[in-house]
Amino acid sequence: MNLYIINNSFRYELENVTRLFFPNEKINVCEACDSFVKPYIIAESGERLSLKVEINDFSREQYADKTDTQEDERLLCELLYKALCDYSGVTPPWGMLTGVRPIKFYRQLKNDGGESFADNSFLEKYFVSPEKLSIAKRTEVVEKRVIDLSSSNSFSLYIGIPFCPSRCRYCSFVQSSVERSGHLIEPYTKLLCDEIKATAKIASDLGLKLETVYMGGGTPTTLSPGQLKAVLSAVNDSFDTSSLREFTVEAGRPDTVDRDKLISIKENRVDRISINPQTLIDPVLENIGRKHNTAQFFGAYRLAREIGFKSINADLIAGLPGDSFEGFCYSLDNVIKLCPECITVHTLSMKRSSSLTQDGTPIERKNAEEAAKMLEYSNLRLSETGYIPYYLYRQTRMVGNLENTGWAKPAHESLYNIYVMDETHTILGVGAGAVTKLKSPRTGYLKRIFNYKYPYEYIGRFADLLDRKNEIYTFYKKYVF
Fold it and tell me: How many C-alpha atoms does 386 have within 13 Å on its Cβ side?
C-alpha cells in the first residue's frame, strides 16, 4: 500500500491507521512526491483537509474543514478510517485508536472533561465499540486506585534476563537461547549484580523509594538456583526495601521450573511469580515452539503452591496458530479451576521479527473473528468467576486489532504492570535490553536510557553502560529537584 502525505506532519498516526486495515502489507510512505502509484492513499492538508483513496475498484475522495489545531490530525485520520472501513467491510473494535495505552488516554480525557466527555470521545470521535469502552472504564477505575498509592519520589526496578531455553515462534524480544549463549550466563549474572549495586547507590543518593521489583526476560528461571540467589540477594542487600510492596519473578516457561529454583526465589523475598501455559492444547504448544507440555505446566504450578507462593499469574494467548475457539475455552476454564491470583489474556501479536511473520503466516479475517470470540468469552468467564480487569495494553499487528488484559482477584493486582502502562513513575532498568524510563513528577517529562540489547554487548561494554547511569543524576537535577 502506498501512502502519500502532503503538507502535514501526521505521518505517524496516518500510517498506523492504514496498518489497521493492511496488517500483512508493507506501507510505503512518501512525504514529497509529485506522482502517485496505485493502490494509494493521499492525505493532504491544503485549504481544506482532503483524502483520496484508490484501491482496486474502490475509489473515495473526502474533505473536512481545517481548524489549524491538533484536531486536524484527528480529522484527517477520521477521513482515512471511515474510507478504509467502507473499503474493507471491517470495523476495528478499538476504532481508530492505535496507541499502546488506551486506558491512560481515557484517564487523560476523563481528567480534562469528566467521565461523560471521555465516554463520548471514545465512542464518537475515535469510534471505539461500546464493549471496549466498557472494559476500558472498568480497568481505569482499578488502575487509578493503584496509581494513587504511589508517591512522587517512588520508583520501580526492572531486571532483564535475556536468556531462554528456546525462542517461541511468536516472540520478537531480544533474547539468547541457552544452546547458543549458555556460556555467557555466568559472566552476565556477575556483571548484572554489579549493575544492581551501582543502581541502588544512585537511588539512595537521590532519595528514591523502591515500590516494586520485576524480574523479566527472556526467561529468568533459565538461571540456576545459585545464579537466581545471587541476583535476588543483590537487590535485597543493595536497595532500601523498607517501602517495597511487590517483588515479581517471571518463571514463565514451565520447563525451566524446579523445586530448587522456586525455593531460591521464595527465600529471597519474592512474593509474586508467573508460570505461563499460553495454551493447554499440546499440539498448539508444539506448533508455536514451546518446549513444554501441559503436564509440565500443572506440575510447576502445583510445586509453586506447595512451596508457598500465594500470588501466581498465568498467561494465555488468544489467536495462536492451530488453536480454536473451543481449545481456547478449554484452556481458560482449566486455568480458572486452579484459582491463580492473576490471569493475563494476551492476543497474538504478529511482530515483524517473529518467526511466524518471517515464515509468511498472514493475519486473516477469520483469525481475527475467532480471536475476538475468545476475548469475549474470557471477559465473560473471568468476570463471573470474580476476576477484575486491572491493566490493559495494545501492540502493533495484533490479530483483530484487539488487546492484552490482565485480570486479578481483588487486592492481587500487579502494581508494576499498572505503573509501567500508566508511566506513573521512574523505572530503573538493569540488565541487557533493559530500558530506564525517568519521569519528572513536576512536569511529566519522560527520558529513556537504553542498555545494550545483547548479552555479549552487555558484557563487552559494561563500563560504558555504567557511565550512562550518570544521566540519571543529570535528569533529576534538571527536571526534579
Answer: 10
Phi, psi of 216 (to 5 degrees): -130, -165
Q: Is the Cβ–Cβ distance between 4 and 18 less than 8 Å? A: no
Same topology, domains 2-88 and 147-430? Answer is: no
pLDDT at 361: 76
Q: Provide the mean pLDDT of the chain.
A: 95
Residue 53 is predicted with a pLDDT of 98
Q: How far apart are the first and last CA of the chain?
A: 49
Architecture of the domain defined by 147-430: Alpha-Beta Horseshoe (3.80)
What class, spelled out in words, does domain 2-88 have in CATH?
alpha beta
Q: Is 64 helix (H, G, I), strand (E, B) or coil?
A: strand
Element (H, E) at 464: helix 462-468
Q: What residues does 345 pair with on adjacent strands?
A: 316, 405
- Return the C-alpha cell found at 299: 506440575
* Burial class of residue 22 (count of CB atoms within 10 Å of its CB; 0-12, 13-18, 19+): middle
Q: What pLDDT digit, counting tens, does each position of 101-142 carry? A: 999 999 999 999 999 999 999 999 999 999 999 999 999 999
The span from the CA of 410 to the CA of 58, in Å, is 50
Angle of CA points 327, 333, 338, to nearest 5° = 130
Q: pTM of the prediction? A: 0.95
Beta-bridged to residue 450, according to DSSP, are 435
Indicate the domain borders of the chain. Answer: 2-88, 102-146, 147-430
**What angle is formed at CA 320 by the lines to CA 316 and CA 322, rounded to 5 degrees?**
130
For the four alpha carbons of 405, 407, 410 and 415, in that order, the dihedral sign comes to negative
Cβ(438)–Cβ(426) below 8 Å: yes
